[in-house]
Q: What sequence folds into this?
């Protein structure tokens, strides 16, 4: 098991390293001089040159990369050209807001999605199954921004029971937080629930038809036990991987939802940075995002090993 | 309690299947997998059901325990008397059926590796079965499990209980399945091609184990197989199935010495015998289509005796031949040696 | 008595399953064809141009002149939807074909050659996959500009790793098949094995994945345009139409909501047809794709 974990860890580090290279090199291709972009076209050339030296732009590329990565490892991602503030500070400010929408959405989606998937598989062919399948098929094809806007139209404008925009931190006012978070979280969750339900259903169906389930039934095990104990453990294993994939989607979705509901989270910071070519923010944010994704995948892999003995027994000896 | 009509039983008959019909309703039509078969198993008897793949032998056994998937399958008709009670009067998921499964009637499947749940230990699966059918706690169930593994000849049983199925060989897994079958003092074991997926040496070992256990515990055994050679050593009586019907039945001795149905004759000819230097004669043709069943004898296309009588008449009924127990479904009278 | 089915009969059987399976698959296929038709022949369906403004009649509801109303600059919504279909469909098709072709080739080569090359390609793909496609698109879009070709390339790059991953694992599993090993033993040249045996087996699943990923490409394009990083107004893209219409939600919700309906309709249709294709080609893939 330990070998398994270490192997995975090494892979993670390689991946993060490759991502950092990518993020860094992409920004090198950006047209225009960052210093000039920051100070504006009217600024005197000396000021631009001074800023260039300050930003290490005069050094060879490899050195620039090493300096950037070195600082990053120590927790310094540089300064934003647009806001002239330390990027890490901005991240710290905005992260709670993003998490305040993203985490509940992830949790709700996983729980509801798996539940729907199991229900649908177990009651295959019935109205319940048809309803869930219909819902999932449509849900997977609905863009989050449309869901958000439709939700706003329905609940905020027509029914007037929810606010249009804004975000309040739960530590400031929990009631307001819930009130304002309902629509964003729901809009984000629906696509995810659909995706997870679909995958869970198909895994569950496949497992239910396996021979070992037939054996359990042949030996008189109660149907509920068969499904919830024997089948579920087998079905959840691939679902765990799916959840890992959902993290990617949820990050993309959060960026959009933050825009729709005007929430100043990390997603909106990235968007503004992209529009302003604030390259340091872009580099740093991409790095952080991929760290999150890689981290989640790492956890998922470990869980996979925990639940499926075949993986940890075999892979550890590879 | 349901008022189930108890049939007047012969005290030696354990299981009697009458006119069982099971079909599968697929997009291409109704597949009549089991098309009216009747057979019986006495106490302490070893009965074999022989036939090629797709003849309905496995489906018939699954029907006995109502393990057929509904849909697309459906048990259309028939009675299954076990200890005098018609099992088909119980609902598929009823408590009564669940109590019979794994306790009174146990079934051993063909692929031992995939018949055990890969993410649970072998010990967990056995003790769960024990706990389901006996009023014991977890610890006792585990201990009973260890003993049952020892009984089937698994060395180092208490360690092996903690193994996962993929860590065991095919033969070991099948031993585990046999242990699961006998642990609850089963009255009838159904072995559905128990050795087909194993290599030749292991086949012999497993068969020997199964037969010795069955004799020791006075359990009845139904062996389902396509390999006539395997059962002639052990079976008391044999039923030959073809295309969902029983085409010949009788004692092993009768069928070996005086086979009457062309299919049985063909099967015997295609089994290699060590002491004889003959060529193997396979039965020509392919298994029949179970959706569009012709009215005549279903073996007709592959039968070398194909006569006018066979072409014109419908499927022959089973008729008794000399001794009371030997029956055959054939228009012709082939008293072949 | 027929004992074996010929190749043709098997193919016909599959086609029958695809179209007989359910009326829903047929309906979705029709929907897709309608969209494509409408996109190509847009000028024939409407007398307006997508940028023609009727400033006396802004944010109007459906009427005889404007079947779906007008937007904030008085432009006919139906017209913009039709032209928007052109943009969305063209970009996602181009992006998907590009990603599928290059991605599959890379994946198949990686899987077949194996060794260091496979490790390198797969690690790079892992790194690529750890960046959400929308993020990747956003970052690349700013580099490449906002015209249709550039956006297509951006989206193609963002989705390519799915194809690499899938085709690699496909090849790996096919390689294990006994008949490949048998053929290798006989001494068939590696290139011949690749083209004659491996590739034909890769096509069906790849086609299914392609159909399903068309929807993904459309969603990314719409999201990009919504965020203002994709196709920019006044060129109509369903995404930027929603963004524009959002401000006028109270006055005329249709402007913002209708483009979304179109997206949902076509993405769901692609998914359903993809499912149908998968069932027709090989129902065993059900759990994997």
A:
């Amino acid at each position: 098991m330990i070998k398994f974990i270490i192997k995975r860890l090494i892979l993670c580090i390689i991946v993060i390293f490759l991502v950092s290279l990518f993020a860094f090199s992409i920004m090198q291709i950006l047209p225009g001089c960052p210093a000039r972009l920051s100070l504006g076209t009217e600024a005197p050339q000396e000021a631009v040159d001074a800023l260039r030296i300050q930003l290490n732009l005069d050094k060879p590329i490899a050195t620039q990369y090493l300096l950037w990565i070195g600082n990053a490892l120590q927790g310094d991602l540089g300064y934003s050209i647009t806001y002239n503030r330390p990027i890490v500070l901005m991240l710290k400010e905005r992260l709670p807001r993003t998490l305040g929408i993203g985490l509940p959405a992830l949790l709700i989606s996983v729980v509801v999605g798996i539940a729907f998937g199991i229900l649908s598989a177990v009651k295959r062919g019935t109205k319940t199954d048809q309803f869930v399948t219909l819902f999932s098929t449509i849900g997977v094809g609905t863009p989050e921004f449309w869901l958000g806007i439709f939700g706003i139209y329905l609940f905020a404008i027509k029914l007037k029971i929810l606010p249009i925009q804004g975000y309040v931190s739960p530590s400031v006012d929990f009631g307001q937080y819930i009130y304002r978070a309902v629509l964003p979280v729901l809009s984000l969750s629906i696509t995810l629930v659909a995706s997870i339900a679909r995958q869970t259903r198909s895994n569950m169906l496949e497992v239910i038809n396996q021979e070992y389930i037939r054996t359990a039934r042949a030996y008189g095990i109660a149907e509920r036990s068969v499904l919830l104990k024997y089948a579920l453990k087998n079905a959840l294993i691939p679902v765990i991987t799916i959840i890992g994939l959902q993290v990617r989607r949820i990050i993309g979705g959060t960026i959009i939802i933050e825009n729709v509901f005007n929430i100043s989270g990390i997603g909106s910071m990235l968007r503004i940075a992209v529009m302003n070519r604030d390259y340091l923010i872009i580099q740093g944010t991409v790095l952080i995002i991929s760290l999150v994704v890689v981290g989640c995948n790492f956890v998922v892999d470990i869980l996979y090993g925990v639940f499926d003995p075949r993986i940890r027994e075999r892979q550890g000896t590879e | 309690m349901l008022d189930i009509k108890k049939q007047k039983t012969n005290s030696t008959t354990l299981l009697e299947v009458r006119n069982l019909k099971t079909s599968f309703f697929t997009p291409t039509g109704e597949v009549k997998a089991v098309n009216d078969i009747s057979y019986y198993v006495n106490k302490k008897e070893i009965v074999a059901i022989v036939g090629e793949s797709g003849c309905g032998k496995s489906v018939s056994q699954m029907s006995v325990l109502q393990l057929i998937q509904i849909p697309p399958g459906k048990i259309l008709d028939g009675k299954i008397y076990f200890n005098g009670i018609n099992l088909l009067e119980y609902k598929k998921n009823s408590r009564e059926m669940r109590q019979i499964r794994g306790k009174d009637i146990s079934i051993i499947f063909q692929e031992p590796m995939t018949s055990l749940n890969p993410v649970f230990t072998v010990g967990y699966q056995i003790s769960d079965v024990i706990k389901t059918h006996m009023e014991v706690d977890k610890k006792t169930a585990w201990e009973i499990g260890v003993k049952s593994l020892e009984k089937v000849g698994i060395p180092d049983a208490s360690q092996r209980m903690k193994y996962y199925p993929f860590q065991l060989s095919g033969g070991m897994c099948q031993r585990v399945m046999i242990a699961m079958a006998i642990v609850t003092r089963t009255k009838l074991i159904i072995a559905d091609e128990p050795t087909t997926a194993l290599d030749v040496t292991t086949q012999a070992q497993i068969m020997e184990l199964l037969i010795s256990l069955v004799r020791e515990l006075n359990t009845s055994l139904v062996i389902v197989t396509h390999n006539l050679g395997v059962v002639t050593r052990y079976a008391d009586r044999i039923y030959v199935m073809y295309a969902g019907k029983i085409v010949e039945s009788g004692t092993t001795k009768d069928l070996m010495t005086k086979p009457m149905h062309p299919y049985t004759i063909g099967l015997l000819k295609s089994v290699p015998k060590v002491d004889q230097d003959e060529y193997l004669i396979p039965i020509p043709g392919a298994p029949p289509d179970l959706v569009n069943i012709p009215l005549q004898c279903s073996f007709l296309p592959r039968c070398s005796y194909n006569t006018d009588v066979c072409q014109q008449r419908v499927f022959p009924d089973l008729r008794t031949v000399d001794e009371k127990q030997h029956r055959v479904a054939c228009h012709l009278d082939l008293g072949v040696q | 008595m027929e004992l074996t089915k010929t190749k043709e009969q098997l193919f016909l059987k599959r086609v029958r399953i695809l179209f007989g399976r359910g009326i829903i698959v047929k309906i979705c296929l029709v929907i897709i064809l309608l969209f494509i038709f409408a996109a190509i022949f847009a000028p024939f369906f409407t007398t307006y141009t997508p940028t023609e403004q009727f400033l006396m009649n802004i944010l109007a509801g459906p009427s005889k002149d404007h079947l779906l109303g007008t937007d904030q600059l008085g432009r006919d919504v139906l017209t913009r939807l039709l032209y928007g279909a052109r943009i969305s469909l063209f970009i996602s098709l181009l992006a998907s074909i590009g990603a599928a072709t290059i991605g599959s080739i890379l994946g198949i080569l990686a899987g077949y050659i194996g060794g260091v090359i496979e490790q390198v390609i797969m690690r790079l793909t892992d790194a690529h996959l750890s960046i959400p496609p929308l993020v990747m698109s956003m970052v690349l879009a700013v580099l490449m500009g906002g015209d249709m070709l550039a956006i297509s390339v951006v989206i193609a790059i963002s989705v390519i790793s799915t194809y690499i991953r899938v085709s690699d694992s496909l090849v790996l599993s096919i390689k294990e098949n006994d008949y490949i090993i048998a053929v290798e033993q006989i001494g068939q040249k590696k290139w011949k094995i690749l083209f004659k045996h491996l590739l034909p087996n890769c096509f069906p699943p790849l086609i299914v994945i392609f159909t399903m990923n068309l929807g993904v490409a459309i969603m990314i394009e719409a999201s990009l345009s919504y965020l203002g990083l994709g196709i920019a107004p006044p060129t109509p893209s369903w995404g930027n139409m929603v963004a524009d219409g959002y401000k006028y939600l109270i006055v005329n919700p249709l402007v913002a909501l209708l483009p979304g309906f179109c997206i949902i309709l076509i993405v769901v249709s692609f998914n359903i047809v993809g499912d149908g294709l998968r069932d027709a080609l090989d129902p065993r893939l059900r759990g994997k794709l």
